[in-house]
Specification:
six-stranded antiparallel beta barrel, alpha/beta, 37% helix, 18 strands
């Protein structure tokens, strides 16, 4: 199922009319060559009509990139640039945009060949603010062809996320379970982002599930699940029900996506789910995440939103985990201390009952929901996928609304350690530098819930820029400060 936007970036070069147009033409050509040699031609369209020097040129370029099917815009200052025309181009282009500029090439061409784009970027940024136009500007937006090609490439995941959010529908089922106020947040900011939400009852889902009783597709899908699980298929008797549930969700998505291209789901999974459906949905949630349709647990709407952003940015499977428990001192001494450069307070365990896709587990096995089985018959809690998470780089992150409808976010990079958690569920031993301080002065201080989205790789740079682009105030984007870099609320005396 295609649940992710494809990007086509329109590259438009601009030129101040008192500068040689050839500066922008030649620098644009060099940029395109550097980009295609490293990344291929698939995502970049070079606007050939003109170098934008005037408002008339701006209209021509705008019409050209629209006709070419571009859904993102890169405005390249080959020289100083026309601050009015270039920012009007950004204003009238309906999609994510970036601004960057050419560096001077050599000391031998600083008379007739000097472009002054370093100066032009200041005027461009000032005019963008006057027109209230948002745009991505790289950390250091001046570079030669190779550096600018890298900037273009870094813009791609940001553009994908922005486009995806504008065409996203979140489908939720049921209210949050009792005592899960932590996952409650106003939905007004979703509409402000351009996201649609469809809220449904658990009863609606239950009815749809039974409409799939005897569905002819169930046996084949159950066989597919068995093949995927292999030796981990410890509960074969539950697979037909899980297959029926997966078909129910997929059909619901197709019948209810409406005019939206992309969908994510915030699902209910307890307490009545087990007794009425006769299983838990964890394994199906992970399977859908691997297919590009993230499903959050416990009707965590902003968790589903965060997972979708992570999927689009990383173009890979993500998961949603509880920031769950501390690492015991004996485990730290035996398995971490001296082997890895982390203190015990840098470590913690990320856990959920069994919702992580099998491809992100070292060895996945179908089990039962151990926590719920403490109060319910074990046979109605089957359907979790248990296993240790694959070691490697991760990014822990979340986008969240406050009670008064302000967006907040956090991003922290770290890794999953090759250490056995000695526990159950989808679980891993995580290490994030200065996690203890980050936990106290971002997660607790800023009232984030216990659920965090996990991308398997380091994507902090792109996620930080996505959050800025969609309107999260920079001071509301938390991250793990390095040692010696004090948080505003951190006690200076320790």
């Amino acid at each position: 199922m295609n649940n992710m936007p494809e990007i086509k970036i329109g590259l438009v070069a601009v030129s101040r009319d008192c500068f040689p147009e050839s500066l922008s033409v030649n620098r644009r050509k060099a940029l395109v060559q550097a980009y295609t040699e490293k990344y291929g031609e698939g995502t970049l369209y070079e606007c050939p009509i003109c170098i934008v020097e005037s408002e008339i040129h701006m209209v021509q370029a705008l019409e050209d990139v629209r006709a070419a099917g571009c859904n993102a815009l890169a405005v390249y200052l080959g020289n100083f640039g026309p601050e009015i025309a270039e920012t009007l181009l950004a204003k009238h282009f309906d999609g994510p945009k970036m601004f960057f500029a050419a560096a001077e090439e050599t000391q031998e061409s600083l008379i007739d060949g000097r472009g002054d784009a370093y100066c032009g970027m200041l005027n461009a940024s000032y005019n963008l603010r006057l027109r209230k136009v948002g745009a991505y500007i790289p950390e250091y937006p001046i570079g030669d062809a190779a550096a600018c090609a890298e900037m273009l490439h870094e813009f791609e995941p940001i553009a994908r996320a922005v486009i995806g959010l504008r065409d996203l529908k979140i489908i939720s089922f049921g209210p949050r379970p009792l005592n899960f106020l932590a996952c409650n947040a106003p939905i007004q900011p979703l509409y402000d982002l351009g996201v649609e939400i469809e809220e449904n009852s658990e009863l609606d889902l239950f009815e749809a599930f039974h409409h799939h009783d005897g569905d002819a597709r169930i046996p084949a899908l159950a066989q597919e699940m068995a093949a995927e699980l292999g030796a981990g298929n410890k509960k074969p008797e539950i697979l037909p029900k899980l297959a029926q549930y997966e078909l129910t969700l997929k059909d619901w998505v197709e019948e209810h996506r409406g005019y939206r291209k992309y969908v994510t789901i915030a699902g209910k999974c307890w307490p009545a789910f087990q007794t009425q459906f006769g299983f838990v949905p964890c394994y199906v949630n992970g399977r859908l995440a691997a297919q590009g349709i993230p499903v959050s647990c416990e009707v965590d709407i902003y968790g589903a939103l965060s997972e979708f952003i992570g999927t689009v940015v990383s173009q890979d499977t993500v998961t949603l985990l509880d920031i769950n428990n501390s690492v015991p001192a004996d485990m730290y001494r035996e398995s971490i201390s001296g082997r890895f450069p982390y203190r015990q307070t840098d470590t913690f365990m990320g856990f959920h009952c069994g919702n992580t896709a099998i491809g992100k587990l070292s060895c996945g096995e179908m089990r039962f929901q151990r926590i719920m089985a403490r109060n319910l018959p074990e046979e109605v809690t089957q359907g979790t996928l248990e296993g240790n998470l694959v070691p490697g780089d991760i990014t822990f992150f979340r986008l969240q609304s406050t009670a008064d409808c302000k967006l907040r976010a956090y991003v922290a990079q770290g890794e999953i350690l090759p250490v056995s958690p000695h526990s159950f569920g989808s679980i891993g031993v995580f290490a994030i530098p200065e996690m203890g301080r980050f936990y106290r002065h971002v997660l607790i201080e800023k009232n984030f819930p216990h659920h965090g989205a996990v991308a398997f790789g380091h994507y902090g740079k792109a996620l930080f820029e996505v959050f800025k682009y969609i309107g999260v105030a920079p001071e509301e984007i938390g991250y793990n400060h390095a040692a010696g870099d004090r948080y505003p609320t951190e006690n200076p005396w320790g």
